[in-house]
Amino acid sequence: xxxxxxxxxxAGKDLLDGLARVIGQVPGGDAxxxxxxxxxxxxxxxxxxxxxxxxxxDPMSVVHRVPGPEPMxxxxxxxxxxxxxxxxxxxxxxxVDRFESLIRTEIGDRSALDAILSTWVPEARREFELRxxxxxxxxxxxxxxxxxxxxxxxxxxxxxKTDPDQLDIVWIKSIVGLxxxxxxxxxxxxSRRRVEHHEKxxxxxxxxxxxxxxxxxxxxxxxxxxxxxxxxxxAGESIHxxxxxxxxxxxxxxxxxxxxxNLAEIPRxxxxxxxxxxxxxxxxxxxSRQMHFDIFVHKDLYxxxxxxLRIYDTAIIGQADINDPSRDVDQFDLLESIENLGVGIxxxxxxxxxxxxxxxxEVCDTLxxxxxxxxxxxxxxxxxxxxxxxxxxxxxQERES
Length: 401
Prior knowledge:
By secondary structure, the chain is α+β, with helices and mostly antiparallel strands. The chain has 2 domains: 3-120; 133-395. The protein has 9 helices and 13 strands. It has helices at 3-23, 33-40, 44-54, 59-65, 69-79, 86-107, 110-120, 122-144, 356-367, and strands spanning 146-159, 166-180, 187-192, 203-204, 230-235, 238-243, 254-267, 277-283, 288-298, 308-313, 339-343, 374-382, 388-395. The strands form 3 sheets. Strands 4-7-2-1-9-12-11 form a 7-stranded mixed sheet. The longest helix is centred in the N-terminal third of the chain and has 23 residues, at 122-144. It is elongated, with a radius of gyration of 27 Å. The two termini are 53 Å apart. The model has no long low-confidence stretch (mean pLDDT 89).
């Protein structure tokens, strides 16, 4: 245990001992925050934080849960009027003073303390990540001049009907509550593919029209009415969708759903000696309150392992190839994880994307995919980091002898 960790741990023990002794002498101190707040004449939020702190499972959690020094001093001052033992009050005040000195002299401020605690306290880490991601979302949405409530992508991986050695990849993008915050800004999102040794790629709309710059992949029946107008730009392996100029503000928000179909896109079997993993990624190129990323895989594919989640920083080099070990240093260490949805479309509902099961059913019906043969995985994130890449990876399979 390092020196700073020892100091923080000791501060937590002192605060726990001092505060618990004081609260134990306050009438109704064990009856809940509302009663404690009434007895002390303090607000319920402060009372709740103090009670959570003295009920914490360990000293580190105490330090995470306690309010700042001044609110604790207000509580102790109020407690002094209720006949609490003066020696216990002195001990509690001393613990608060030492805590304040530790923050100022060793750490810097409370924000820096929260960052340190996020390493050692799971509860602290969840709150730390969420608050910082929320702050980043607010800043980027204002700088970019646009934001969305939900940025959702679903990927369907299915054996090709025309070539049993190839796989189809279908991308469904759903953007819910998208609007401009400032007039004149460019609102863009991108569909990008990185497929090796593929010279015959033809990306089409769901009804089979080539994406030649004129055809739109928008599924109008799932969009706002009237359907949003998009300009489509091709840039190598990327397709850019640009929202045409319109009104601004939350009252003008729209829902937008697109579907790109890539038939016989990638090989089904990969020799083991190549040591390659299959992967799909959701690139966060719009500031969004929530990210919703699903992959639906035919039950006969990639059966050897549960998918792995990797989250990359793309700020310097761009989209990461997960098979490139040099990009490992660009990974974010975040708490997000993958949820196993099971098999069959009845398990693939969503409270974030309107008419989600109906959308999946229509896409699969049009392409003659068996929805009961799909295995689903989901990753969600509140306030995903703008410019990050969420990738799900699978162990590839060799052709059976």
